Amino acid sequence: MRTVYLNGSFIPENTAKISIFDRGFLMSDGVYEVTSVINKKLIDFAGHFSRLERSLSELDMSTPVTKQALLSVHRTLIDKNKINHGLIYLQITRGSAGDRDFVFPDPKKTPQTVVMFSQKKENLIDSPEAKSGIKVISIEDRRWGRRDIKTTQLLYPSLGKMMAKKVHADDAWMVEDGYVTEGTSNNAYIIKNGKIITRAKSFAILHGITRTSVLRFAKEAQMELEERKFSIDEAIDADEAFITSASSFVTPVINIDGKNISDGSPGPMTQRLREIYLDESIKTAI
Ligand code: PMP
């Protein structure tokens, strides 16, 4: 049985309980982060912590733990649960005011709920998707307008994933006003004539921590970059396509809406980017 973290304590998962009045449960009034663990070490921890602070502050919440304290909780979970490769999930909600009300409770009287747990994933690096690439479908982006805040409102992305599974695809790329925003749980990219193209940061997409690192490494490796919108038609006509996220790193996309990208196998630049990302981020893992 896993040991999880709840509001300051490390306890067995089956004894971790939160109130039915928790605003995370009643209103999805909470944010989350996911950090990957490779060889017992955390990848891009500083980036995930900064985004957490930003998500909380955009929702008028304070950050209830220091960076150092949070790092220590991550490390304890890795230790207690013997995680070699896997993921650490964190959720912070506005807590439970003991009643249901749209108005935010007074934060001095209502402490936030902090939950953290680990998930083992021994094949995090050697995943089948990394080797074969994934197939995506395109769907309308019907999420709310502040996707830059990492909230726990994950119902539409979850529905999108199910729409993909129904037609034997792996994921969905969401489209708004004719242009791809992002994947259900990842950022989306294409490569054309040696240039990496991905949507610029805005309210429309989550500012992926893996995205920031991958773009920095690509620049350092003198690869050409362009941050702009692209359509599904342009993606199908691209030389390569891929996604990034903390749990998939850099993963090739080989087919969109049933149409192969190039010859339908993972592209060389995508594979190179995955290698660079893994090499560099393992070096700086903490
Ligand atoms: N976009 C969305 C909608 C996501 O859910 C995620 C992963 N949580 C990402 C992008 C990738 O972000 P990161 O690289 O920080 O995991």
Mean model confidence by pLDDT? 98
Low-confidence stretches: none
**Helix content bin:** 25-40%
Compressed to H and E, one letter per element, the order equals EEHEEHHEEHEHEEEEHEHEEEH
Cofactors, ions, other ligands: 4'-deoxy-4'-aminopyridoxal-5'-phosphate
* CATH architecture label of the largest domain: Alpha-Beta Barrel
Helix vs. strand class: alpha+beta
The Cα radius of gyration reads: 19 Å
**Overall domain count:** 2
Name given to the CATH homologous superfamily of the largest domain: D-amino Acid Aminotransferase, subunit A, domain 2
Which fold name is given in CATH as the topology of the largest domain? D-amino Acid Aminotransferase, Chain A, domain 2
What does the largest sheet look like? 9 strands, mixed
State the separation between the terminal residues, measured CA to CA: 26 Å
Descriptive account of the structure:
The protein starts with a strand and ends with a helix. The relative contact order is 0.14. It contains eight helices and 15 strands. The strands form two sheets. Strands 7, 8, 9, 10, 11, 12, 13, 14 and 15 form a nine-stranded mixed β-sheet that branches. The longest helix has 16 residues, at 268-283. The chain has two domains: 3-120, 2-Layer Sandwich (D-amino Acid Aminotransferase, Chain A, domain 1); 128-284, D-amino Acid Aminotransferase, subunit A, domain 2 (D-amino Acid Aminotransferase, Chain A, domain 2). It has 286 residues and is an alpha+beta fold. Bound molecules: 4'-deoxy-4'-aminopyridoxal-5'-phosphate. Residues 34, 182, 185-187, 206, 208-211, 244-246 line the site of 4'-deoxy-4'-aminopyridoxal-5'-phosphate.
